[in-house]
Amino acid sequence: MRSFYWDDWAMTAMMVFNCIQQGLLYFFLEFGAGLHLEEVLKTHPEWIPILLKGLLAEEFWYIWMQFAIKMCFLLFYFRLSTATNFRRALWAIIIFHVVTTIVIWLLYGLQCRPIAAFYEPEKYPGVKCLDTNVTYFVPYTLNMTTDLLILVLPLPVIWSLQMTVQRRLGVLAVLTTGGSAVLTSGLRAIILYEFATSPDFTWSLGEMVIISNVEMQVAIVAANMPALKAFYTCWRDNKLGPGQGVTKELSGAPQVSKGSQSDMELQSGLSGSRIGSRTKTPGLSVLGATESEEKLFQGQKYGFTKIPEEGV
Which residues form the signal peptide (predicted)? Predict the structure, then answer.
C-alpha cells in the first residue's frame, strides 16, 4: 500500500467526476425534481423539457460513474495476488465490465430515433421509443451483475491467507465493504421501479437522482476502504505528519546495506538459493500468494519482508 498505483490514480480522477455528478444533482433539484408534477406544470411548465434533457445526460454520466468506480475496485485487485487463475478471472471481469458499459451506452443512445424525441416528444408524435422497462432495468441488471462479481472475486484469495481467523475476517471486512454498495443498489431498484411506473414524473425523479447519488457516494467510500484502513493504522500508531511514516519506522530497525536491503525487499519465496528469485510487480509493497495480501493491511515493521535464513 506504500506505492501510488493505478487504482489510486483512478480514485483521484473520481474527485473530478464526482464534482460533476454533484452538479447534475443540484441541476435537477433546481429545476423542479422532487416537486409534484401538478405544481411544476402550474408554475414552471418550461422546466419539463429541461429536466428530460438533464435526465438523458444523467443516464450517460451515471453509467460513466459506475464504470469508473468499479474500475477502482478492479485495479486495486491487481495488488492482491499474482496467481494466474486470479489474474485471468480479474481480466475476464474487466472485459465484461467494459463490454456491458458500451452496451448500455448504445442502448441509451438508440432508445429513441431521433434521440431528440426523448426530451421533445411532442415534436415527434410518430416516434416510438424503447420501453422504459428495457432502458431502466437492463442497465440495472448488468451493473448489479458486475457488482456481485467484484464482491465475490477476492474472497478465495483472502480466505487462503496464512493468518488467524480473526485477522482473516478483518481483511474480508475491509475488502467486502463493496457489499454496502450492492445493498444500496438493491434499494435503488425499488425507487427505479417507482420511477418507471409513477405518473408523478418530477416527484419520482427527485427520489431517483437522490438514491442514485447516495449509491455512488457509498461505492466511492467502499472503494477507498483499504486505503482508509492503512490511514487509520498510521493515525493510531502516531505515524502521520512530517518526519513520520517510513522514516520513523526505520529509525528503530537494524541497519542494512543498500545491497542487502534491496535483496530483502520483495518476495521471500526461496527456490534453491539463499536469496532466491524476486518477482516485481508495480504497486505491490510485498508480493506472494499469501504474505502479500496480509501485509497490505498491516503496517510493516521495517518496510521490508525479512527472509528466513537457511543453515549455513
Answer: none
pLDDT in tens, 43-74: 999 999 999 999 999 999 999 999 999 998 89
List pLDDT tens digits, range 198-240: 999 999 999 999 999 998 998 888 888 777 766 667 777 777 6
Asked if residues 155 and 84 have their Cβ atoms less than 8 Å apart, the reply is no
**Bond prior to 282 in cis (omega within 30° of 0):** no
Tell whether 96 is covered by a domain.
Answer: yes
* Structural domain boundaries, residue 212: 6-232
Distance CA 296, CA 211 (A): 33
DSSP annotation string for 106-171: HHHHTSSSSTHHHH-GGG-TT--PPPHHHHHHHHHHHHHHHHHHHHHTTHHHHHTSSS-HHHHHHH
Q: Closest by alpha carbon to 221, among 174, 189, 185, 187?
A: 174
Contact between residue 94 and residue 77 where contact means Cβ atoms under 8 Å apart: no
283 in any annotated domain: no
**Contact between 82 and 287 (Cβ < 8 Å):** yes
Tell me: pLDDT of 92 over 60: yes
Task: Domain count for the chain, please give it.
Answer: 1
Indicate whether 241 belongs to any domain. Answer: no
Contact yes or no for 23/68 (Cβ under 8 A): no
Helix 84-109 with 47-77: angle, nearest 10 deg = 170
Specify if 294 maps to a domain.
no
- 3-state SS, one letter per residue, for 225-246: HHHHHHHHHHHHCCCCCCCCCH
Q: What kind and span of H or E run contains 18? A: helix 6-30
